[in-house]
Write a structure and sequence with these properties.
single chain; Arc Repressor Mutant, subunit A; globular; mainly alpha; 5% strand; 2 strands
Length: 74
């Protein structure tokens, strides 16, 4: 399986993108968060496929799996 998400400092200010595009993971996640379906995203970006969208979702989930600690403010 090819790597679907790429991070390069010279492309989109180093934001994670779908490989060989300038479409950021953030953009796809914002569409999903706004309630757009995968089908609607694929209509908007016909160069993408369903696996690209799933890769964005997996990438975001892995970021959220990082350990977060809530600290009380004095």
């Amino acid at each position: 399986m090819k790597q679907r998400i790429t991070i390069h400092p010279d492309i989109c200010n180093g934001k994670p993108i779908i490989t060989n595009t300038r479409i950021t993971v953030q953009t796809i996640m914002e569409f999903l968060g706004a309630g757009d379906s995968i089908e609607e995203i694929l209509e908007e970006y016909p160069s993408l496929n369903r696996e690209d969208i799933y890769a964005c979702m997996q990438f975001a989930a892995k970021l959220m799996a990082n350990h977060y600690e809530v600290r009380k403010i004095a």
